[in-house]
Amino acid sequence: MRNETEIQFLPGVGPKRAEALMSEFGVRYASDLLRVYPFRYIDRTSFVRIADVRGDAAFIQILAYVRKITLFGAKGEIPQENPKELKFNTVKRMSVWVGDGSGEMEMTFFRGIKWMFGKLSEGGTFIFFGRPSEFNGRFSIVHPEVDRPEKQTEADAHQGGILPIGDTTDAKTPWNRTKGRLVGVYPSGEKLKNCGITGKVMNRIMQGALNAALGQEEETLPIYILEKYGLAPIHYALRNIHFPDSAEALERSRFRLKFEELFFLQLALLKQKFIRSRAEDGILIPKVGEAFNKCYEALPFPLTGAQKRVITEIRDDMKSGHQMNRLLQGDVGSGKTMVAVLSALIAVGNGYQACIMAPTEVLAQQHYRNICKYLAPTGVRAALLTGSSRTAERREVHAGLEDGSIGIVVGTHALIEDSVKFRRFGLAIVDEQHRFGVEQRAKLWRKTCDGKPPHVLVMTATPIPRTLAMTLYGDLDVSVINELPPGRKPVQTIHGTEGKRPMMYNFLKKEIAAGRQVFIVYPLIFESEKLDYQNLENGIETIRHYFPFPPYKIAVVHGKLDNEEKAFNMDAFSAGRANILVATSVIEVGVDVPNASVMVIESAERFGLSQLHQLRGRVGRGSDKAYCILMTGHKLSKESKNRIELMCRTENGFEIAEEDMKMRGPGDLEGTQQSGLPISLNIASLARDGQILGAARNAAAAVLNEDPALSLAKNAPLLAELRKNKYEIKDYSKIS
Questions:
Q1: For a surface tag, which of 314, 458, 564, 731 has the fewest beta carbons within 10 Å of its beta carbon?
Q2: Residues 571-627: pLDDT tens digits?
């Protein structure tokens, strides 16, 4: 049994600092602290000449002699005739001018002046390390780290070799050996700073944690995996991730720890998927059925190859005898709705019912209208159930679902109410699934048939990067529609600024004169909803000025309208009675108006890439040339400029998603932070470590194919590691 050392008993910690470390990192024991990794490293192996210092350098290290030390009080310079008589409580600042033969620079101290004054001496040679700042063409460092070189000359230092440095506080501690090497920089916060846990102190604490806990760390990976993938042992990796012996040792340690993290994530996900695919009985749906065939034969367009492939994958799942749990990804306009309809008809053709749940009433109503058109030749009855459905309509739908006369029901959150009961519930389809909460989806899954869970198809039009899909939905089977229907024209994306606004309005007038329609979208950011509402209102007045009635007809849709007014205005635009729709991002998902040729997005820099891509997908659905105009201010941040340039460069949703994740990390893509992933990642990055993730997933799959229960002796370390609480994986298919 391990003898765990609490962090408060580590050298230099104590109760107060332990509390701060617990608050910042969630650690209690020294072994926990070993899994808090540096987020970057400072190269202490090289020195910079003062003449070569540049303002863009994050940190520099120089070897220089002290030319002059000056103390300043409230009234100016303080004489130093008799240093023993100095009253340091009156000293406000100490200026230390240093030189190295190539130039001079100032080191400035506002704290710890008495201690530093005793450490430094004019004419002495020291190593100074810190962040340079420039003022009036001269560089200085505020509160640099100061150390004394040991038996090394200035010439030696500038050759770039590793310099042994003595620590003036305690030259006997192992921590001193890290000096003159790559030094880790750890995350920090106000609580740590207030407790005096500086970077230097954090390194010292981490060395204490290594001394206390490293010897008790057990290897988590079997020898055969270590050998197959050339992975460093755990002791080597933990030691060198904190105090690397070399750049090569650091990279080897990083790879090992990233692989381990991603391997166990995938092992947990795949094990859950493996167990469910074999243990979870599902509804048997053996045939395609007459309803499917009638609908398919009556389609006015051919299915794409990708649509046919995905339908085959769904059919195979539904006739397997196990519960289907499949994620369907498809870019905007790729034909997911058609796949959903045909999948629902397979269930109906086998005597079961299906539901399609959408996140908004606008989208649910649109799905219902489209589905009814496709169902006409089949005789299958469909129904719509939303929050605004009247009482009489609700009763009729409830009765039809209970007696089985309704084959397919389309709706919003209203479908998960306890009053909604199915006679034979066979298939649950959830559109834009990330917009529903965990409990909301769980209620739907629990509406079982004969105690068996329904088949589950979750869909998203938000392209998910491959690495994120393997992680967020690693326990689901994934289908991708990576082909657009024939005849779909590309959307030309243009970046516009305020100076081009009159030109943009004239262009819109030409499009409207040609019989086409226009979207104008304003941002809605929850943190400043009031402000955004005002912006929308001001924008509407401007648009009414440029586009007066008649001949122009403007419809307005935003979250402050009641559902009835929102539906009326949306219907007016869809039916062509209005030629301009002014809206917030409420129309991001699902609005299908083939006659709309232009999407104008105001304050485009305030939208994420995924949102911009979704909004752009609202146009280009007809036969006319389509445009997306991204309006921004003149001053853009570097990140905003990159987003706008990417949108103008490509329409590929998966390319955009990959770039978005690289820019922002994986968090916001699905409305969660990285900590919201199945397990927290301490060192691996889904944005940067795709290759390692792929290798880790293949390794995990190979292990489970050979030993699904992890019962073999060689896999004992894997089973022991998986049993830890951190690997409890949510079942995204059922959420129950």
A1: 564
A2: 899 889 999 999 887 665 556 788 999 999 999 998 888 888 888 988 887 778 899
- For the chain, the first-to-last Cα distance in angstroms comes to 35
**Residue that is written with structure tokens 């079982």 in the block:** 448
Integer Cα distance of 625 and 619 in angstroms: 9
**Residue (of 270, 269, 272, 244) closest to 257 by Cα position:** 244
CA distance 119 to 716: 55
Which one, of 279, 285, 294, 290, lies nearest residue 316 by Cα?
285
Strand 455-460 versus strand 425-431 pairing type: parallel
Retrieve residue 371's tokens.
Answer: 């589905």
The dihedral through the CA atoms of 109, 112, 114, 120 has a sign that is negative
Q: What is the DSSP string of 684-736?
A: --TTT-HHHHHHHHHHHHHHHHH-TT--SGGGHHHHHHHTSGGG----TTT--
What domain range includes position 629? 491-650
Q: pTM for the full model? A: 0.62
Q: Report the CATH number at residue 108.
A: 2.40.50.140
Q: What is the average pLDDT across 85-99?
A: 89
Element (H, E) at 132: strand 132-135
Tokens of 428: 């649950």
**AA letter at 42:** I
Q: Tell me which H or E stretch contains 130.
A: strand 125-130
Largest Cα separation within the chain, whole Å, is: 105
Q: Is 451 in the same domain as 576?
A: no
Q: 101 near 118, Cβ under 8 Å?
A: no
Nearest to 556 by CA among 575, 532, 542, 572: 572
Distance CA 715, CA 200 (A): 40
Q: Which of 197, 216, 235 is the last residue of a domain?
A: 216
Give the integer Cα–Cα distance in Å for 336 and 309.
12
pLDDT, tens digit (0-9, with 9 covering 90-100), for 37-64: 998 887 777 788 999 998 777 788 899 9
Distance, in Å, from the CA atom of 547 to the CA atom of 580, rounded to the nearest integer, reads 9
The tokens describing 675, both together, are 């900590």
3-state secondary structure of 303: coil
Sign, CA dihedral 110-111-117-119, equals negative
- Would residue 723 count as lying in a domain? no
Q: Do both 495 and 574 map to the same domain?
A: yes
Kind of pairing between the strands at 382-385 and 325-330:
unpaired
SS3 assignment, position 285 = coil
- Total domains in the fold of the chain: 4
Asked whether residue 251 is assigned to any structural domain, the reply reads: no
The candidate with the shortest Cα–Cα distance to 264, out of 695, 650, 709, 697, is: 697
HSE, side-chain direction, 13 A CA sphere, residue 208: 18
Beta bridge partners of 106: 97, 140
Pair of tokens at residue 46: 């090289």
Structure tokens at 118: 């005793």
Residues 260, 548: Cα–Cα separation, whole Å? 63
CA distance 589 to 299: 24
Separation between Cα atoms, residue 127 and residue 167, nearest integer Å: 11
Cα(484)–Cα(469) distance, rounded to whole angstroms? 21
Both 441 and 509 in one domain: the answer is no
